[in-house]
Structure formats: structure tokens, C-alpha cells
Amino acid sequence: MMIKASLLAVCTLALGATAMPFPQAGQPAICASKIEAIVPSTVSCANAQFPEECADSSRAAPAISRSFTKYGINSKGEQSALVALMLFESGNFTFNKNHFPGVPGQGTKNMQSPAFNLLYAQSVFDNHTVGYAQAQGPEAVLRLVSNDNESFGSAAWFLSSQCNQTVRDSLATGTKEGWTTFLTGCVGTTDTPERDAVWVATNAVL
């Protein structure tokens, strides 16, 4: 609890020093120091394998916060799950596309499939912009949603548009059962010890 209180104070100071809005009442603050407490390496992209895709904690925090506000992700349980999912899927925010094995058009920090990236792009951009990118192929669509706001916003969009209320209510409890339900019942992947470790670390900080 002392760690959380200290991090909250740092977050409050950081938010007050920037133009980023304060979180709503009861909404956990997302700031660089909290992301670094979860994964210390996020402080820098100096050693990133694909530096042009990497975003450090100072870039990630405001983009994630904006996405939570935009898509109404207010509970601690939901926020922890989305941060954990993005950290795991993007190699701690160092990847913006699927390199292993390399699926064309799969990416964002949520590592969405090309089909979901197209739906996401259609929700963010006008028809002409999306249609032009779509005509060039899935990689062009991915580029549309690869800027920080769109890339980090993908997880919040996915939860708010693709997951049913039962999944969201379960996530909001902040329990392991809710996390597993989210992964298996909406994301469509298996719950593994590696994923759980990231979620536990995130849940302890946020």
C-alpha cells in the first residue's frame, strides 16, 4: 500500500505539470512512474530491437490515459487487464507489429489481427482514408492505427466494442477469474503463467 501511495503522489505531481487531464474520481491514475514500476525497462527505448516501434513510459502513459477516458474504461480491474495485455503482446511496448512469425497487418500495442485493425480504423478515421489504406493492403491499414494514440488506444477500443458486458463486469472485479474470462472469452487466447505474471505485476501497481 505504501508503494501505491507513493506512486499515486508521483502521478498526481506529473499530471499537474502537464496538460493531461486528471483521472475521474475513483479512476486510477496512469503515469510513467507506474508503468516503470511494473516493467522498469519501459523507462527507455535505447536497447529496443525495433526502435521506431518502441514507446517508452513517458509516451505510453498519456496515450493510455486518453484511451481510457475516450472509451470509458474506468475500473481498476479493466485498466490493469488492458495495460497487462498490451505489455505482454508488444514486448513491453517495444513492438508495434507482429514480427514473430510475422503476420502482415497484425499489430498495435494490442497486437490486433488485420480484421480487427480494419474495424478499429473504420471507427477512428473517415471512409475515404480507410478505403485508400485498405486498397493498399493490411500493412497500410496497420500504419493508420500505429501512432501512439491509436496504437495504445486499441486495447480500450477492443474491450469497449468487442467484449460483452459479462466479460467487462468480470474484469472489473479485479480477480484472476475475471482476467482469465477476458483472455479466453473475448481476446480468444489461452491464459498462461507468462501472461499471469504480467497481470499480477500490473494489478499490484495500478
TrEMBL record:
- Give the signal sequence positions: 1-19
Alphabetized, the UniProt keywords read:
Signal
Name under which the protein is recorded: Uncharacterized protein
Q: Does the keyword Signal apply?
A: yes
**Looking at the record's lineage, which domain of life comes first?**
Eukaryota
